[in-house]
Amino acid sequence: MKRISILLFLCTIMLSLQQCTGQSNTKNTYSYKKGDANGIGKWYMGREIAHVMGFQGMSWLNRPEREKEENVSKLLKNMNIKVGDTIADIGAGSGYHVFKMAPLAKNGLIYAVDIQKEMLAEIRRKKKNTTDKNIRVVKGTDTSVNLPENSVDKVLMVDVYHEFNHPVEMVNSIKKALRPKGKLYLIEYRGEDSGVPIKKLHKMTEAQAVKEMKAAGMVLEKNIDNLPWQHCMVFVKK
Fold this sequence. Notes:
By secondary structure, the chain is of the alpha/beta class. The protein has a single domain (52-237), classed as Vaccinia Virus protein VP39 (Rossmann fold), CATH 3.40.50.
């Protein structure tokens, strides 16, 4: 009986140490300090995370000059979308890219993922006015895209990754959803270019993106340098 009690005591200590180590690792992933007024005071790998653009900025997402400023048509060509592709637009907003991709993947599926119910409501409203039947609206969270494992050929993230409150957890969630040969298209305003008229915290350098994705087990396949203001970085699983 005494021997069993000792074993139980030792197991309890070991479990406690494991939990503490896990908590420490999670805690040490991020740091917290005051920074830019456009940031949330939370830092990851030397980068301050930016505030999420609220649904109040929906009109900016739908601005008429967006095609000229971002050349979205060229971005879609960069993605080489096949008719049977399953694509997830993470941080889909009001669906600007969703409704352009849906006809191209007409035999596939487009997941429109966002954390703001107002954005998702706008996508549903637009969906009623189209003939596209391959759009599925998904409510994500701060830590998960809420997609089935091994279900997606391509993931698109346009000017949203820098706003993830939990980038480590989100990329891990995306990796699980990606198929083995799936591709992640990370679109971010070029942080190296001071001429890009976007606030500093809402831009990213290629070096920073590569560093963060590498830590998550993703490698840069190529950076397609043909967009006016943005990087078009293509990442694959290691």
